[in-house]
Amino acid sequence: KGRGPIQLTGRANYREAGRALGIDLEANPQIVATPAVGFRTSVWFWTKHNLNALADAGTLAAFRQITRKINGGTNGQADRENYWAKAKSALGCGSGTEVVSCTANGRAGVCKDKATCTGTAHAGFCPGAANIQCCV
Questions:
Q1: Of 6, 25, 96, 123, which one has the greatest count of Cβ atoms within 10 A?
Q2: What is the separation of C-alpha 112 from the centre of its chain, rounded to a whole number of angstroms?
């Protein structure tokens, strides 16, 4: 049964999270539903699956990868993407569906992972992690 903000599921996840947190979650799975433990298991899951880099990318493609890692599929994806776009708009970081544009040294580009840039990547012109750079 899924519990906590990230809806932790599966005996193996309960065991591994419990081991990492020093709590016997297999014997006491219901405590994952409490804020004190639920948020700790959510942080454990987020960290274990390296989701910060994807979140820092701020792209719809990255958001979809996060969804797959957390949910294991695309069930409810349209609703989730709608809420994500609303949240990004409310927070002033765009609609969540557009390409983030940038300008580096007077040249227009797009913010993307440096590893996927087929042009020249320029650091310091895009929000997010250091690997997200202005590709011109």
A1: 25
A2: 15
